[in-house]
Amino acid sequence: MTRRSSTLKALAPGPEPVLPLRIAVMDSDSGFLLVLAKRLEALEWENTVLASTVSTTAIASMSLDALIVDLAILGPKRLDWLERLCQAPRSFAIVVCTASSTVAERVRALRLGADGWLSKPCHPEELIARVEAVAGHRRRPEPRNVEPLKVGEVEIRRDQYQAFVRGSSLNLTRREFQLIELLVASGSDILERDFIYESLWGYEMVRNDRSVDVFVHKLRRKLKRASPRWDYIHTHFRAGYRFAPECVEHEVARELKPARELSPSSLAA
Question: Tens digit of pLDDT for each residue in 36-48?
Answer without folding.
Answer: 888 888 888 888 8
